[in-house]
Structures are given as C-alpha cells and as structure tokens.
Amino acid sequence: MKIAAIKKLNENMPYWMKRPFARIIRNRLIENRVFLEQYELLERAEGMTEREVSKLQMALLKRTLVHAYRHTAYYRELMDSIRFDPESLTSVEELQKLPVLTKDLLKENYEKLQADDIDNFYDVRTGGTTGEPTHVLMEKDAIYREWAFTYHYWSKFGYDFKISKLATFRGVDLHGRLYEINPLYREIRLNVFRLNRDNVKEYVKRIDHYGADFIYGYPSAVYNFCRLARETGIDLAGKFKAALLISENLYDFQENEIKAVLKCPIAMFYGHSERAVYAEKYDGGYVFQPLYGIAEISEEGNPVVTGFINGKIPLIRYEVDDYIEPIDGERVTVAGHGDPYKIAGHRDDDILYGEKGEQISAAAINFHDATFSGIKSYQFVQRVPGKCILYIVPSQGGGISGRQLKMIAENVSAKLRPALECVVEQRGETILTERGKYKMVIQNCKL
C-alpha cells in the first residue's frame, strides 16, 4: 500500500477502529524497504571519517544532477545553455556555476521541472513568507527517507522508532476532541486549540494513560502546555526523555520555560516542506545533514539548498527565505558537515490569543487543503483576545464566491473554537510592515 493511501486510511478511519489496526498501520512505515535502507545508511555514516562522508555526499549530488539533466526539460535546457556537464562534476563548489532557483522561477517552470521517469508522487503545498502557497510534487519514497532522517536524529536523544511514543501538540483538526490516538506515528495527538487552564490536568492524565515518553510539536504549543502546567501546579519534571520541537522559531523565553518545567533536553531540526534541506540542532547550534543535501549561504545570508531525497521536482540551488550564519569563524559559501550555524526562520510573532489565555500558533492552521484553492495569500489581524479577523486575498481579481468564503470560515473556525471567534473577509492585498515585510499575524492585543 502506498504511503499516501496509508496516511489517508489512517486519517479517515473512524477513531474507534484505529486501535485494532495500530500495528499494521505503523509497520507500513517502519518496515518499508526505503525507510530501512536510509536509516541503515545514516547509522553506517556515524562511523565514517569526514572524508568518507564527503565522498558519499559528492556521489549523491552527482546522482541528483545527472537525474535532473536526463529527466527534466528545465535542467536539461539550463545546463546545455551554460555548457554544464553533470557527469564530469568533481567538486561541490562547481555546483555554483548553476543559477539560483527562486520560488518565482519554480512557479513559472513548474511543468518543465517535473521528472518524466517518476509516476508515483503526491502534492506538497507550503505557505511561505508572502502567504502565497508554493507547490512541489514529491516522489512517494521521499516521506520514508524523511522519517529515516528524523528518527535517526531523535535516536540521539533516546528515541526508538520501534517502541517510543509521542505526546503531540500540533495543529491537527481533531473535530472538537481533546485528543486521539494516531497509530501511524505512535502518538497521542492533543488539541492545541482547546488547551487552557481549566483542562490542562485532563491533558496530562491522557498523556500518562497513553504512556508517551517524548513530547513533540510546535514550540509555541509545547511552551503553552508547560506554562499552563506550571501555573496550575502540575509537576512535569522528568516525565519526558526529550522535547522534540518542529516548524517554528524557538525563542529564549520558550526554551527557558520548557527546560525549567520538563527538565529534559530539547531536540529541534531545521527543514522545509519542500524537503531540500535538513539541519540538526545541538547545544552548539544547527549542523547540516550532509546526506540530505547541500547547503550554501548567499551573500545576504539566505540558505541556497540542493536536496537529495526527492527526484520528482529536483530543487537544485533553491533559495529559501530564512537567515543563516556561522557561529564560529568567518562567513563561508558552503556549510561544512560538522560546523555549527545559527538559523532564524521566517515565522515570527504569529501567535493568536484565546479568551482564556490560550496561545495558538497561526502556523498550526493548515492552509494547504482544497478549501483554500484560488487563494493567493492570507493574514490574521487580532485586536482583543478571543477574536480575530482572517483576511483572504484571492488569486484572481474577481474574488471568490460567497460559498467558498463560508467554507473557509467554517474550516478555520472549527479549529479555533472555542478559544477564538474568527471572521473571514476578502481584501485586495495583505498588510505589510513599514519595511515592506509580510507577517502572518498582525498582533495588536494588549495583554
């Protein structure tokens, strides 16, 4: 069964039916051949010298470039136009002969970037700093490789993909329930939209009953859980082996609260939905994973990345809108294997405040489903706790129908209630800061 079908079955199966099929569903991931081969390669690489890892990285880069040349019209025309022969590649630095792939170029050449030899794939949509979704087609095996990298990184904090369990705080629609068991990832999913002082004890009770030994999710959501636990006198010290954080910036105040309450290490990796870059966070900073791809640093400090795990739309020298700088030493062009870096993500101050003190990350709301088709960008504006406005900017000048607007309102409100009331309105463009930057949340609450 394909992973997309497994995920769909897992999501759509009635809640009461999941437990009997838990082992079968889970084994479709962790017993997959691609997953196991990738995980075993990462294990072997742990014992390699830096020179051996560099040689392996070079082989993966060459394979990626040759495949892109042979099977995509875009890269074939591009490489021919500058007389770039991927077969004769001898160093990573030669990669810089190719021009940068921007998000605009990706959108303009979407059809020509698709590899003609990969038929089994799925669609990934990302938000981005402009609020306009970016589409990337992902070959089916990419998700198995991705989880191999993630589980291998987590294993350094004690995680065992065969037996460990997660208490997950992410923006998953639980249809009003406080929690549900998700066997595919061995997790209890907790509803981040309903968490408050009145029910935090119930959340802890459900986590204990499930037996989760790791806490996983958005930094803002895990921080909020820890804050509420501390304020209500709940002792969480030593409950989890590690906090596994994803998808958002981790601010100092959040890190301090999480460490003070949980008394456990924090693991956090840097990546994107496009799956072209992966960096693992340690005490010294982020370290780029050399077998996942190549990370360059532009003059402006933006990552320029080349990914190895997805061949359907190869992203070669793809520029992303985060900021990266070396922690030690002078600025370098290509990120070294073991050197630490500071990475600042583009999501900032994207918290919405509920009526009872709930803190909800706007990044937790999924804007990538079919409900939002025809939408160019979106933006929240909040002036008082418990209420917000969602501005929708249509792709076409004529706007969207009242029916679709109602569907969007119902979709978002279902995830935010009862913490927040949300009104959805159309407008011509999103509101920009004085410096011309987009923010997902314009926050004017005075708490």
SSE topology:
Elements: H1 3-12, H2 22-30, H3 33-45, H4 50-71, H5 73-81, H6 103-108, E1 121-126, E2 134-139, H7 141-155, E3 166-170, E4 179-182, E5 187-191, H8 200-210, E6 214-217, H9 219-231, E7 243-245, H10 252-262, E8 266-271, E9 278-282, E10 285-288, E11 293-297, E12 303-307, E13 318-319, E14 323-326, E15 341-344, E16 351-353, E17 359-361, E18 375-384, E19 387-394, H11 402-416, E20 421-426, E21 441-443
Parallel strand pairs: 3-5, 3-6, 6-7, 7-8, 18-21, 19-20
Antiparallel strand pairs: 1-2, 4-5, 8-9, 9-10, 11-12, 12-13, 14-15, 16-17, 18-19
Helix/strand class: alpha/beta
**What is the molecular shape?**
globular
Radius of gyration: 22 Å
Known CATH architecture of the domain at 351-443: 2-Layer Sandwich
| Number of DSSP-assigned strands | 21
Extract low-pLDDT stretches. Answer: none
Number of helices: 11
Mean pLDDT over all positions: 87
Looking at CATH, which topology of the domain at 351-443 would you report?
GMP Synthetase, Chain A, domain 3
State which percent range the strand residues make up.
15-25%
Ends apart, CA distance between termini: 50 Å
Please give the largest β-sheet. Answer: 8 strands, mixed
Strand numbers in spatial order across the main sheet: 4-5-3-6-7-8-9-10
What portion of residues is helical?
A: 25-40%
Quick one: CATH class of the domain at 351-443?
A: Alpha Beta
